[in-house]
Amino acid sequence: MTATAAMSAVLVVGMITYASRAGLILFLAERPLPSSLVRALRYVGPAVLSALTVNLIAGGEGASGVEFAEVAAVSVGVLVAFLRRNLIASLIAGMLTLWLLLVLF
Amino acid sequence: MHGTPGTMINSGMPRLRPYPEPTMPDDADAPLPTEPSKGLITRQAISDSTPLFIPAIPFALVLGFAITESAMPTGIAWSTNIFIFAGAAQLATVSLAATATWFTLVATAAAINLRHVMYSAALAPRFGDQPRWFRWVGPYVLIDQTFALVSTRTELSTSAWRRYFLSSGFFFFTLWNIFVVAGMVVGSSIPTEWRLDVAPAVMFAGLVVLGLSNWPGAVAAIVGAGACYVALGVPNNGGILIGAVSGVAAGYVADVVLDGRNLSTRGFPQ
Questions:
Q1: A-contacting residues of B 195-214, CB under 8 Å?
Q2: Which residues of chain A have a CB within 8 Å of the CB of B202?
Q3: Measured at the alpha carbon of residue A55, what is the angle toward residues B176 and A102, in degrees to the nearest 5?
Q4: Percentage of chain B with pLDDT > 70?
Q5: Per-residue pLDDT averaged across A63-80, rounded?
C-alpha cells in the first residue's frame, strides 16, 4: 500500500468514525433512531469482528493460510473469554497456547 | 474497544464521596447548590475511568506492535491514534493494509465503528443544551468506555456533565497514546519468532465474546465468521464484508424471531 493510499484510508476511516460519533449529536438531537436500524446496528459489531478474526487467521491467503497453531490459540482465547469475561486473561491464554504449540511442533 | 464495565477492577484510587441524590430534573447551566466543585468532578471522572482503562492496556500494546509491523509507513499507522482513536478500527486498519484493498480496508474499519451511531443517538438529548463547541469536540472522544461512564451520570448538571465527559474522554485519549507508543517501542524489540502477529486475531476473537450479551448477537458472530470462512477465496479480502453483511442479517432475523417469542432480551446463562 502506497503512502498516499494509506494516508487517505486513515483519513477516510477517521472521518467516518467521527461522523458516526458526532452525526446525531450535531444534527438530529432529540430524534430517536428507527427501531429496525437500532436492531441492525446492534449486530454490526459481533458480525464484522468475527469475520475479521477469520480473515486475519487466514492472513489474506485464502483457506490455505489457516494454521493449526493459530486456530488453537484463537479457540483457547475464545474459551477463556467465555469463562473469565476478561480480555487480558483471554489474550494471555491464547498466546501461551500458540507458544506452547510452536515449541512442541 | 468494547468497554466491559461489568468486569471493573478496583483501581486502588480513593473512592470519592458519591454525588448527592438529585432533588429535581435539572437542565439549567447553573450548578445545583449541592453540586460538587469542578476539581472534584474531574477527579471523579478520572477515578471512574481508571479501572475501565486497565483492560485496554494489552489492546494498546498489541496495537503498538501492529503499527510497527504494518504495511503502512509507521508514521501513518501511528496517526490512526489521532485521526481514528478507536482501538478495534485502528487495529483493523493497520493489520489489513498488508492484504486488503483500499476499499475493503476502509469499509471494514468503518463498519467496526458504526456502533458509535447508537451512542450518538443515546446521548443526543443530553447535548441539546450544550454549547456548540462541545457538540463538536465531545464526540471526538466518545469511545465505548466514555459512553459507558457518561450515560449513567444523569444526575449531573449540564456544565458538570460536560466537564465529566471531557475529563474522562481526554484521560483515555492521553493514556491510550502513551500505551500505544509503549507498545511500538517494546514490540519492535521482540523477535518475529514470538509470532505476536497472531495477537490481533486473538484480541478480536476475545472482543467478540465479551461484546456478546444475547443469543442474536451470538448468531451474528457465528454466521459472520462462517460466511467469511466460506468466502475466503473471494479476492481482495471481500470475505470480511460478505461475513459482516451475512452476520448482521442473521442477527437481525434472529432478533425478530426471538422477539416474537419474547426471548431476544434474555441474556446468556452466565
A1: 195-196, 198-212
A2: 73-74, 77, 90-91, 94-95, 98
A3: 85
A4: 84
A5: 91
